[in-house]
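In response to reviewer comment 3 from the previous cycle, which asked for concrete evidence that the modeling workflow produces usable outputs, we include below a single protein chain processed end to end. The sequence was submitted unchanged, and the resulting structure tokens are shown without manual editing.
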Amino acid sequence: MLTSERKALILEVLRRDGRVIAKAVSQELQLSEDTIRRDLRDLAGEGLLQRVHGGALPASPAMADLAARREVSPEGKVAIGRAAARLVRPGQVVLLDGGTTALQLARHLAHGLEATIVTHSPTVALELANHPGIAVELIGGRLFRHSMVAVGAAAAEAIARIRADLFFLGVTGIHPELGLTTGDAEEAAIKRALSRQAAETIVLASREKLGAASPFQIAPLSEASAMVVEADVPDETVEPYRKAGVTLIRS
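The workflow returned the following structure tokens.
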């Protein structure tokens, strides 16, 4: 079998089953596991999957640059943002992550709402600048351009002084076993810091992130109080998260 044929088969297994187990593929093709692992390395280098112990999972489209991410599930992100915005109550202190779905949440906060939004995203802060009832606290630090958020020691120190009611978390991957993941170690650390300072962490979970994985874990799935998902995501897709004890909020 040609290399291109093996890789095409691996991607078909990934599409069909939602994961690839290297040992099973090697047995099916009567090839060594080293050969399959080499193919997985190549496909991961092309951004077509995310390698994990024993095989691979789908790579999240949310790993793309900001301009490309704006084109992924735009209607779903609007719906999730609108539903998440309804969870914010008057007088609350809310930590709001960066990213395209968080921006939609900011846009859909009720006009008459009075609350405090703390964010490390300049883009989110600018979106809220003209909201009459929202007090905006902007966390500073080194700008991580991929997500347009502040990271680093200065951001971590500022976050440690905050006590919030809610944290709306953006991720690039959500998996029942691997948990909540993103593509950068420093950004993952900042997200963990934000989650620690909130009574509840709510994940903004657009469909392309479900079942996908990225290189750096933010937290296990058990750290999430709830996930906001699109209304038409099939029940079988979200059932593993429900079984894990995460409250599902349909947008």
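The longest helix spans residues 3-17. We consider this sufficient to address the reviewer's concern, and the full set will be provided in the supplementary archive.
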